[in-house]
C-alpha cells in the first residue's frame, strides 16, 4: 500500500542521530515505493539549512545529504522562519545584508506544515 509522508525534523544535524535517521527513513520509504511530500525543519533542526555549517571531514554532511535526497525525489525542504531567526538562520527578507540559508532550503511559516497535513492524506512523522 502506497503511503505519503510528511517529515518533521527537530534535532540539529550535529546533536543527535535524529536528523540522520530522518534522512535514512526518507530513503527507505522512497525505495519501498512511498512518497515523501515535504520535509519540515523546526527547532534546532533549522541549522541543517545553514550554509555556514561546516562539519569536520570525518563527519556526515547532513545538509548535503538532504540536498541530494530532495533533488533526486523532488521533495521540498522547508524551514520554519521563526525558529530559524531565533537561531541566527536568516534570509535577506529579515532586512539584513546577507542570508545564510542554503538555496536548496525554503524558509516558510509553520502554518505551511500544518496546512499541508490538514489538506492532504499524509502521515506525519517526527524525528
TrEMBL record:
One Gene Ontology term, aspect cellular component: sulfurtransferase complex
Main location: cytoplasm
Alphabetical UniProt keywords: Cytoplasm, Transferase
Family: Belongs to the DsrE/TusD family.
Lineage: superkingdom: Bacteria
Keyword Nucleotidyltransferase: no
Protein localization: Cytoplasm
Entries under Pfam families matching the protein: DsrE (PF02635)
BP term (GO), one: tRNA wobble position uridine thiolation
Coiled coil, from the record: none
Gene3D superfamilies per UniProt: DsrEFH-like
Identification of the protein by name: Sulfurtransferase complex subunit TusD
Any one Gene Ontology molecular-function term assigned to this protein's record: sulfurtransferase activity
InterPro entries: DsrEFH-like, Sulphur_relay_DsrE/F-like, Sulphur_relay_TusD/DsrE
Amino acid at each position: 500500500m502506497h503511503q505519503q509522508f510528511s517529515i518533521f525534523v527537530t534535532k540539529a544535524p550535529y546533536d543527535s542521530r535524529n536528523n540522520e535517521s530522518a534522512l535514512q527513513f526518507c530513503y527507505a520509504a522512497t525505495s519501498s515505493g512511498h512518497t515523501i511530500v515535504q520535509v519540515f525543519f523546526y527547532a534546532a533542526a533549522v541549522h541543517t539549512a545553514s550554509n555556514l555549517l561546516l562539519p569536520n571531514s570525518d563527519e556526515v554532511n547532513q545538509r548535503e545529504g538532504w540536498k541530494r535526497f530532495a533533488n533526486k525525489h523532488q521533495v521540498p525542504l522547508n524551514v520554519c522562519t521563526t525558529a530559524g531567526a531565533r537561531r541566527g538562520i536568516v534570509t535577506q527578507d529579515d532586512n539584513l545584508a546577507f542570508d545564510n540559508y542554503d538555496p536548496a532550503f525554503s524558509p516558510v511559516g509553520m502554518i505551511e506544515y500544518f496546512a499541508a497535513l490538514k489538506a492532504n492524506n499524509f502521515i506525519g512523522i517526527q524525528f
